[in-house]
TrEMBL record:
Residues 1-27 are annotated as: Disordered. This is HTH lysR-type domain-containing protein. Gene3D superfamilies: Winged helix-like DNA-binding domain superfamily/Winged helix DNA-binding domain. Residues 1-19 have a biased composition (Low complexity). Coiled coil: none annotated. It comes from Paraburkholderia fynbosensis.
Length: 136
């Protein structure tokens, strides 16, 4: 009987998972283009956040399942698009080098995330109407 009691909650849990409908996910993906390049977008902001967390481009790239070369190119393109760089890198050596955000980099993250939050709040009614049209 003890085995039956143990298996019953598991079965109830399973049926509850099956009956729960996944909710549509809404994401804003703002990009700022400069000439032919994306000067700023969601990938570069995520990379800046990872650099802030891990202190290096290589560790940030690993955390995002991205090659070091791709991450370095994105950081380079971002910094070339800005009036002042978003990151400061130090060469390797005994201490291993690293990469930190400049005040511009911190400002970019804050402003970008603020825009996302404000857009979500401002469009909540329309988002709710749109998501009601999605089959779940």
């Amino acid at each position: 009987m003890a085995d039956t009691a143990k298996s019953k909650p598991a079965a109830t849990k399973k049926s509850a998972q099956k009956s729960a409908k996944p909710r549509p996910e809404v994401r804003f993906r703002m990009r700022i283009r400069s000439a032919d390049a994306v000067a700023l977008g969601p990938g570069k902001v995520a990379l800046l956040e990872a650099v802030r967390e891990y202190g290096s481009i290589s560790a940030a790239a690993r955390s995002l399942d991205m090659s070091y070369r791709r991450a370095w190119l994105l950081i380079d393109e971002l910094n070339r698009s800005l009036k002042s760089p978003a990151t400061h890198s130090e060469q390797g050596g005994q201490s291993g080098g690293g990469c930190t955000l400049t005040p511009v980099g911190e400002t970019i993250i804050r402003l970008y995330r603020d825009v996302e939050e404000e857009a979500q709040r401002s469009c909540a009614k329309q988002i709710a109407e749109l998501t009601r049209l999605i089959r779940s």
